[in-house]
Design brief:
alpha/beta, Rossmann fold, GMP Synthetase, Chain A, domain 3, 3 domains
Length: about 550
């Protein structure tokens, strides 16, 4: 029998995201409540300012660009208080947002923008050169680039989003909210690295996103997060260090925050002391974080300089987290660290820990959210009993319908009975807690960011001195994350020395985003292990890497 959520089933309205967030009749806080706040500048948006700014921008896109329902707008920006109001404006007119990592190279950005058929790109001034290069590569005119944030283009050639306003030339024609089919129309088009090396567009419908917000809302209130109360009467506040381009930060912070009425204190990027300072100054009570931040909280000496006592709990996701690390944070700060689990394809959250039993089930990624069911299966797809380890398959309203323009992947992505095959290995205990133990998929997760080994292998194999390549995950104990490590076969006569290692690493670094760099190092070998059909046997090299790392640790 499938494992079903232990929570009661909740009603999820079949409405679009805009209606769910901004046309609700049951909003219990005032329109002037601050929702998005810049931790450094204190620039902020109230709930009504978010709504009004979004409508103005959306109508401007429609009148100035002729933007239509279903059109895609790319986002290439670090966190900003402007980020959400801009994509809400897009949703007001029925568009879809394709969010990209602002550390991408121009080539990587160009691929996503072309694949998603983006009609324009939103960015910030420091990323403008990369965006211009990417736009030129795909034939996107420069006047289809928009700036957000505090700075503007000094030349005046690139418009700030506040300049994209309704011109009045279209009269009253079609200036209202677009009609959207929540279960068919896409709200966000995020990209997930595939084991083939080509990123895939994950289509998240309005209903997928609304469902996950509703599921999170239910469990977060169960865990004691509220829009009111607290020392200042303004309720709980959450820290936004997770990037909004990543579906984890997007749904769990930017979207969940405005639905629950929780002020979101935004940092453009994670810096430990600035994050701690924000917690202290704003009285932040909750944060969603990746494992490297948990490691910093456990060990970094700077943490002791700040008062973090307002934190009720933190939730860690995006990558596995060790039990010992959770205990270290508790012993040092008495802050519970609960784990959650999800994927881009599930909008993203599937499970979340519960505050009253987090310590008892330390190591678990929590229980299934409402309206989700799952099963654990063997390699033949046969269901396994409780306690047995196998691949996790899930079904629920937050599960995506499929990859953009990749119908051939559907049969490998979904089972015959419509379960999504996660590619992750784990088991359930008899209390409904899920434990993730391994991955069938070959993706490497560096600080929560996905790295496709095949993509790096393809690039490395283009180096003049490399005959063959295999990239696997190695564990970095200092960063508490996976890092890419390359095993390389060099061409005859090429020296195997440190100089060659440095040259190859630098060569690759110049061609990929920061999170894809070979932080796990380079190893030279005589032959890449493969099976009879020529498929890479990564497991052999993974085991070799573990043995090497154990041996290195024993020498310390």
């Amino acid at each position: 029998m499938p494992v079903k959520s232990l929570y009661e089933e909740i009603d999820i309205p079949n409405v679009d995201l805009w209606t769910y967030l901004f046309e609700r009749k049951d909003k219990p806080w005032s329109d002037d409540k601050e929702i998005y706040i810049d931790a450094g500048t204190r620039r902020s948006y109230t709930w009504s300012q978010v709504k009004n700014t979004a409508i103005e921008f959306g109508r401007g896109l429609r009148s100035q660009w002729g933007f239509k329902k279903g059109d895609v707008l790319g986002f290439f920006s670090p966190n900003s208080v402007d980020y959400a109001p801009v994509f809400f404006g897009l949703h007001y007119i029925g568009g879809a947002a394709s969010t990209a990592n602002p550390n991408y190279t121009a080539k990587e950005l160009a691929f996503q923008m072309k694949d998603s058929n983006a009609k324009g790109i939103v960015t910030q001034l420091p990323m403008l050169a990369v965006v211009r290069e990417a736009a030129h590569a795909i034939g996107l005119p420069e006047d289809r680039i928009i700036i957000l944030g505090d700075r503007r283009d000094p030349s005046g050639r690139i418009k700030h989003f506040t300049e994209i306003k309704h011109t009045g030339f279209m009269g009253a024609f079609n200036q209202g909210q677009a009609r959207v089919d929540p279960k068919k129309d896409v709200a966000f088009l995020v990209y997930s690295s595939g084991t083939t090396g080509l990123p895939k567009g994950v289509q998240l419908t309005h209903f997928n996103i609304v469902s996950n917000i509703a599921q999170l809302d239910y469990v977060d209130r169960f865990n004691g997060l509220y829009y009111s109360g607290g020392l200042d009467g303004k309720g709980d506040k959450q820290l936004a260090i997770l990037p909004f381009f990543h579906v984890y930060g997007l749904t769990c912070i930017a979207l969940s925050g405005i639905r629950m009425g929780l002020p979101v204190i935004i940092l453009p990027k994670f810096e430990l002391e600035k994050a701690c300072q924000a917690i202290q100054e704003f009285g932040i009570t909750f944060a969603s974080i990746p494992p490297p931040v948990v490691l910093a909280l456990a060990k970094h000496p700077a943490v002791s300089k700040y008062d973090l006592s307002t934190i009720k709990f933190m939730n860690s996701g995006a990558a596995p987290l060790g039990r010992d690390l959770v205990e270290m944070v508790w012993d040092r700060l008495t802050i519970p660290i609960m784990q959650g689990y999800g994927l881009s394809e599930t909008a993203p959250t599937l499970t979340k820990g519960i505050i009253f039993d987090w310590k008892r089930y330390n190591g678990s990624v929590g229980k299934l959210l409402p309206n989700i069911e799952a099963k654990i299966v063997d390699l033949e797809g046969q269901e396994l009993p409780i306690g047995k380890e196998g691949e996790l398959w899930v079904k629920g309203p937050n599960v995506f319908p499929g990859y953009l323009n990749r119908p051939e992947l559907h049969k490998d992505t979904f089972s015959a009975d419509d379960y999504f095959r996660t590619g992750d290995i784990g088991y359930f205990d008899d209390k409904g807690n899920l434990y993730i133990t391994d991955r069938l998929k070959e993706l490497i997760k560096y600080k929560g960011f996905q790295v496709a080994p095949a993509e790096l292998e393809g690039i490395l194999q283009g180096h003049d001195d490399i005959a063959d390549a295999c990239v696997i995950p190695a564990h970095d104990r200092q960063r508490e994350t996976e890092v890419p490590r390359a095993y390389l076969v060099l061409k005859p006569g090429v020296p195997r020395d440190d100089g060659k290692v440095g040259e190859i690493v630098a060569w690759l670094d110049s061609r990929v985003a920061d999170h894809k760099r070979l932080r796990g190092g380079v190893r030279f070998i005589d032959e890449i292990p493969k099976n009879a059909s020529g498929k890479l046997l990564r497991r052999v090299l993974k085991d070799q890497a573990k043995a090497e790392d154990r041996a290195a640790g024993a020498k310390l």
